[in-house]
Amino acid sequence: MIKNLLNLFFPQVCEACKNILKDNEVLLCVSCRHQLPITNFHFENSETVKKVLYGRVKLVNATALLHFSKKGMVQELLHNLKYRGHEHIGAFFGKWLGAELGSIEAYRQIDCVVPVPLHKSKKRRRGYNQVTKFGQEIAKALNTEFNTTVLKKTKPTKTQVFKGRLMRSNHDGALFKIHDKQSLEGKHILLVDDIITTGATIENCAKELFKIHNIKLSIATIAIAD
Ligand SMILES: [Zn+2]
Questions:
Q1: For residue 89, how far is its CA from the centre of ligand 1 (angstroms)?
Q2: Ligand 1 center to residue 30 CA distance, Å?
Q3: Residues 205-217: pLDDT tens digits?
Protein backbone atom coordinates (compact mmCIF):
# COMPACT_ATOMS: atom_id res chain seq x y z
CA MET A 1 0.00 0.00 0.00
CA ILE A 2 2.70 2.47 1.06
CA LYS A 3 4.87 1.25 -1.76
CA ASN A 4 2.05 1.85 -4.23
CA LEU A 5 1.51 5.35 -2.92
CA LEU A 6 5.20 6.14 -3.11
CA ASN A 7 5.23 4.81 -6.64
CA LEU A 8 2.38 7.10 -7.57
CA PHE A 9 4.27 10.21 -6.50
CA PHE A 10 7.83 9.05 -7.10
CA PRO A 11 7.64 6.43 -9.81
CA GLN A 12 10.70 4.21 -10.12
CA VAL A 13 12.37 4.72 -13.45
CA CYS A 14 14.71 2.52 -15.45
CA GLU A 15 18.34 3.43 -14.62
CA ALA A 16 19.24 3.28 -18.29
CA CYS A 17 16.34 4.67 -20.37
CA LYS A 18 14.34 6.50 -17.65
CA ASN A 19 11.03 4.88 -18.61
CA ILE A 20 8.74 4.18 -15.65
CA LEU A 21 9.27 0.65 -14.35
CA LYS A 22 6.48 -1.87 -14.17
CA ASP A 23 5.73 -3.64 -10.87
CA ASN A 24 7.79 -6.69 -11.75
CA GLU A 25 10.79 -4.74 -12.99
CA VAL A 26 13.75 -3.92 -10.74
CA LEU A 27 16.30 -1.21 -11.58
CA LEU A 28 16.09 -1.80 -15.33
CA CYS A 29 13.16 -2.22 -17.69
CA VAL A 30 12.90 -5.56 -19.45
CA SER A 31 14.03 -4.08 -22.73
CA CYS A 32 17.23 -2.53 -21.30
CA ARG A 33 17.94 -5.63 -19.30
CA HIS A 34 17.91 -7.68 -22.48
CA GLN A 35 20.23 -5.23 -24.15
CA LEU A 36 22.87 -5.34 -21.39
CA PRO A 37 26.21 -6.27 -22.97
CA ILE A 38 26.94 -9.31 -20.81
CA THR A 39 30.43 -10.84 -21.16
CA ASN A 40 29.86 -14.40 -19.87
CA PHE A 41 33.65 -14.46 -19.28
CA HIS A 42 33.41 -16.59 -16.13
CA PHE A 43 31.20 -19.17 -17.82
CA GLU A 44 33.50 -19.44 -20.82
CA ASN A 45 36.79 -19.44 -18.91
CA SER A 46 37.72 -16.35 -20.89
CA GLU A 47 41.21 -14.92 -20.41
CA THR A 48 40.15 -11.42 -21.50
CA VAL A 49 40.44 -9.76 -18.08
CA LYS A 50 43.59 -11.70 -17.23
CA LYS A 51 45.17 -10.53 -20.48
CA VAL A 52 44.81 -6.88 -19.42
CA LEU A 53 47.17 -7.69 -16.54
CA TYR A 54 49.48 -10.21 -18.23
CA GLY A 55 53.05 -9.87 -17.02
CA ARG A 56 51.97 -7.47 -14.29
CA VAL A 57 49.77 -9.40 -11.89
CA LYS A 58 49.48 -13.13 -11.40
CA LEU A 59 45.81 -14.03 -11.20
CA VAL A 60 43.90 -17.23 -10.59
CA ASN A 61 40.54 -16.12 -12.03
CA ALA A 62 39.40 -12.82 -13.46
CA THR A 63 36.06 -11.71 -14.78
CA ALA A 64 33.85 -8.71 -15.52
CA LEU A 65 30.07 -8.87 -15.78
CA LEU A 66 29.54 -6.32 -18.57
CA HIS A 67 31.24 -4.73 -21.54
CA PHE A 68 31.67 -0.98 -21.22
CA SER A 69 31.55 1.31 -24.21
CA LYS A 70 31.59 5.09 -24.35
CA LYS A 71 28.08 6.58 -24.46
CA GLY A 72 26.61 3.12 -23.94
CA MET A 73 24.12 1.88 -21.38
CA VAL A 74 26.80 0.64 -18.99
CA GLN A 75 28.44 4.05 -18.92
CA GLU A 76 25.12 5.57 -17.84
CA LEU A 77 24.69 2.93 -15.14
CA LEU A 78 28.20 3.37 -13.74
CA HIS A 79 27.78 7.12 -13.81
CA ASN A 80 24.56 6.85 -11.80
CA LEU A 81 26.28 4.51 -9.38
CA LYS A 82 29.30 6.73 -8.90
CA TYR A 83 28.05 10.29 -9.10
CA ARG A 84 24.30 10.28 -8.55
CA GLY A 85 24.10 8.34 -5.32
CA HIS A 86 22.41 5.30 -6.88
CA GLU A 87 24.27 2.85 -4.68
CA HIS A 88 21.69 0.12 -5.23
CA ILE A 89 23.04 -0.36 -8.76
CA GLY A 90 26.14 -1.89 -7.16
CA ALA A 91 24.00 -4.21 -5.06
CA PHE A 92 22.00 -5.25 -8.12
CA PHE A 93 25.08 -6.28 -10.10
CA GLY A 94 26.73 -7.80 -7.03
CA LYS A 95 23.75 -10.10 -6.48
CA TRP A 96 23.74 -10.98 -10.15
CA LEU A 97 27.45 -11.75 -10.48
CA GLY A 98 27.58 -13.33 -7.03
CA ALA A 99 24.89 -15.84 -7.97
CA GLU A 100 26.76 -16.71 -11.16
CA LEU A 101 30.16 -17.03 -9.48
CA GLY A 102 28.63 -19.16 -6.74
CA SER A 103 27.74 -21.72 -9.38
CA ILE A 104 31.34 -21.99 -10.62
CA GLU A 105 33.74 -24.27 -8.73
CA ALA A 106 36.81 -22.05 -9.31
CA TYR A 107 35.14 -19.09 -7.60
CA ARG A 108 33.85 -21.11 -4.67
CA GLN A 109 37.50 -21.34 -3.52
CA ILE A 110 37.48 -17.62 -2.63
CA ASP A 111 38.09 -16.91 1.08
CA CYS A 112 37.63 -13.18 1.18
CA VAL A 113 36.32 -10.27 -0.92
CA VAL A 114 38.30 -7.01 -0.84
CA PRO A 115 37.04 -3.83 -2.56
CA VAL A 116 39.37 -1.34 -4.23
CA PRO A 117 39.31 1.34 -1.54
CA LEU A 118 38.55 5.03 -1.95
CA HIS A 119 40.68 7.62 -0.23
CA LYS A 120 38.87 8.77 2.93
CA SER A 121 38.52 12.35 1.67
CA LYS A 122 36.80 11.15 -1.49
CA LYS A 123 34.61 8.74 0.42
CA ARG A 124 33.56 11.58 2.68
CA ARG A 125 32.62 13.69 -0.32
CA ARG A 126 30.75 10.93 -2.15
CA GLY A 127 29.29 9.42 0.98
CA TYR A 128 30.10 5.85 -0.02
CA ASN A 129 32.50 3.66 -1.94
CA GLN A 130 30.68 2.68 -5.12
CA VAL A 131 32.19 -0.82 -5.00
CA THR A 132 31.06 -1.65 -1.45
CA LYS A 133 27.56 -2.95 -2.19
CA PHE A 134 28.81 -4.86 -5.25
CA GLY A 135 31.49 -6.57 -3.14
CA GLN A 136 29.22 -7.21 -0.16
CA GLU A 137 26.67 -9.01 -2.31
CA ILE A 138 29.36 -11.15 -3.95
CA ALA A 139 30.79 -12.02 -0.53
CA LYS A 140 27.32 -12.98 0.68
CA ALA A 141 26.70 -15.17 -2.36
CA LEU A 142 30.07 -16.91 -1.95
CA ASN A 143 29.56 -17.19 1.80
CA THR A 144 32.83 -15.40 2.58
CA GLU A 145 34.12 -12.41 4.48
CA PHE A 146 33.94 -8.87 3.06
CA ASN A 147 37.11 -7.12 4.16
CA THR A 148 37.51 -3.33 4.08
CA THR A 149 40.30 -3.12 6.65
CA VAL A 150 43.19 -4.89 4.94
CA LEU A 151 43.64 -2.45 2.04
CA LYS A 152 43.54 1.34 2.39
CA LYS A 153 44.12 4.15 -0.03
CA THR A 154 46.82 6.48 1.25
CA LYS A 155 46.83 9.19 -1.40
CA PRO A 156 43.95 10.64 -3.35
CA THR A 157 44.29 10.25 -7.12
CA LYS A 158 43.01 13.37 -8.75
CA THR A 159 42.78 14.17 -12.38
CA GLN A 160 45.15 17.06 -12.25
CA VAL A 161 45.26 19.67 -14.94
CA PHE A 162 48.50 20.99 -13.54
CA LYS A 163 51.15 18.38 -13.03
CA GLY A 164 54.56 19.71 -12.16
CA ARG A 165 57.53 17.40 -11.90
CA LEU A 166 57.33 17.56 -8.14
CA MET A 167 53.70 16.53 -8.06
CA ARG A 168 54.23 13.78 -10.54
CA SER A 169 57.07 12.28 -8.58
CA ASN A 170 54.83 12.52 -5.57
CA HIS A 171 52.42 10.22 -7.32
CA ASP A 172 55.01 7.55 -7.93
CA GLY A 173 54.78 6.44 -4.32
CA ALA A 174 52.40 3.72 -3.21
CA LEU A 175 48.77 4.77 -3.54
CA PHE A 176 47.53 1.87 -1.46
CA LYS A 177 48.74 0.40 1.78
CA ILE A 178 48.24 -2.96 3.38
CA HIS A 179 47.20 -3.39 7.04
CA ASP A 180 46.95 -6.39 9.31
CA LYS A 181 48.85 -8.71 6.94
CA GLN A 182 48.57 -11.77 9.17
CA SER A 183 44.81 -11.99 9.01
CA LEU A 184 44.76 -12.96 5.33
CA GLU A 185 47.86 -15.15 5.10
CA GLY A 186 47.38 -18.08 2.74
CA LYS A 187 43.94 -16.86 1.63
CA HIS A 188 42.42 -16.63 -1.81
CA ILE A 189 41.34 -13.00 -2.20
CA LEU A 190 38.80 -11.68 -4.68
CA LEU A 191 39.58 -8.04 -5.43
CA VAL A 192 36.54 -6.15 -6.75
CA ASP A 193 36.21 -2.86 -8.60
CA ASP A 194 33.59 -1.09 -10.70
CA ILE A 195 35.52 -1.01 -13.97
CA ILE A 196 38.80 -2.24 -15.39
CA THR A 197 40.40 -0.19 -18.16
CA THR A 198 44.21 -0.14 -18.21
CA GLY A 199 44.41 -2.27 -15.08
CA ALA A 200 46.61 0.28 -13.31
CA THR A 201 44.42 0.51 -10.20
CA ILE A 202 44.13 -3.26 -9.87
CA GLU A 203 47.90 -3.57 -10.39
CA ASN A 204 48.63 -1.06 -7.62
CA CYS A 205 46.27 -2.82 -5.23
CA ALA A 206 47.66 -6.24 -6.16
CA LYS A 207 51.22 -5.09 -5.49
CA GLU A 208 50.22 -4.33 -1.93
CA LEU A 209 48.09 -7.44 -1.45
CA PHE A 210 50.96 -9.68 -2.56
CA LYS A 211 52.92 -8.45 0.45
CA ILE A 212 50.67 -10.84 2.37
CA HIS A 213 52.33 -14.22 2.63
CA ASN A 214 51.12 -16.94 0.30
CA ILE A 215 47.92 -15.39 -1.05
CA LYS A 216 46.11 -16.17 -4.27
CA LEU A 217 44.38 -13.36 -6.14
CA SER A 218 41.31 -13.25 -8.38
CA ILE A 219 39.42 -10.29 -9.78
CA ALA A 220 35.80 -9.38 -10.47
CA THR A 221 34.52 -6.07 -11.81
CA ILE A 222 31.14 -4.78 -12.89
CA ALA A 223 32.50 -3.81 -16.29
CA ILE A 224 35.50 -3.94 -18.62
CA ALA A 225 36.31 -1.17 -21.09
CA ASP A 226 36.81 -2.77 -24.49
ZN1 LIG B 1 15.09 0.86 -19.81
A1: 14
A2: 7
A3: 999 999 999 999 9
